[in-house]
Amino acid sequence: MVDAGTGQPAGKNSAVVAAAAALGLRLTTEFANCQVEIDTSVHTSAAELRDDLTEQRTLAARAAASLGTRLLPVGVPPVGRLPFTLTDSSRFEWITESFGSLTYGQVICGAHVHVGMPDRETALQVGNYVRLWLPSLLALTANSPIYGGFDTGYASWRAVQQTGWPVSGPPPYFRSLEHFDELTAVLHETGAVLDERMLYWDIRPSSHLPTIEVRVSDVPATVEESVTLATVIRALAITALAELDAGRTAPEVGTETLVAAKWKAAHDGVTGQGYDVVAGTLTSAQEALGSLVDWVAPALEDLGELANVRQSVQRILTEGNGAVHQRRKLRSGGGLRDLIADLAVPVALAGSV
């Protein structure tokens, strides 16, 4: 949230949560007091998710506007300087006491997509497949090039900021649930995490839901990009489950390779190059995304979403994602104020009067 007049981050998340509740919307506060979180219901179709997310974004923007702020769906605040003020919360105070100044740069907003899993062992094995495509998922949704009023040179500065945490980025290849539990115990014992909720890997089994949680993406700029992201992730999970049912486990690609590929995706987004971690070759971001859609095409076909996803991905490649649009707007000469006005979520549903 930013001030409607100055564009500076607005520390009003508790008040906006209360205003949203009066509109029938449940928001939650986040790490910094200029952040709020939307939480959709569980859905089995892209159409349901689209309607839910559209309504929630609109009501959240309306609640923010009632307090003189604008709601920006971005990975990092385009303006503002460290340190940001954190939300008054016993948990956040605990984290700050443990990790010090590291916490003040973590004003980052991501899209977390959950897919139901039968058990944690299966979730980890599915994750071994999905981790191969994390760089492409980030490139597709990159939406944080502007930070502190300047172009960072990265399509996703959020992805760079997040690396400050001891546990973040692509997870290891997990051989078993025991392997996961043993590593988690070491991380907890050393203080690298305070609890399982601080396993900030890009994909992980949820600590409180029977799901696998994919966390690699910036908050997408639009509802349509968000729906495309969720649909592709669902198709990835379905495809991985089919591979496991056929007795085929994921190829074991080293974490360092994935870290390098993710860095490339964070830097280039959809306009540059990508790295095929399985083939071990540098390719274009467009080809990498094409390979992703091709791999999950049978699952997308079964969901009735193949044509929609192909069309959406092609539109992003042709017209640009959030990172491309932010840079284009900033370079158009209107300055940061015009950029922020352009980013703000509308307070009325499209077509409403």
From TrEMBL:
It catalyses: L-cysteine + L-glutamate + ATP = gamma-L-glutamyl-L-cysteine + ADP + phosphate + H(+). One of its GO terms (biological process) is modified amino acid biosynthetic process. Its EC number is 6.3.2.2. Pfam families: GCS2. Belongs to the glutamate--cysteine ligase type 2 family. YbdK subfamily. ATP-dependent carboxylate-amine ligase which exhibits weak glutamate--cysteine ligase activity. This is Putative glutamate--cysteine ligase 2. It comes from Mycolicibacterium anyangense.
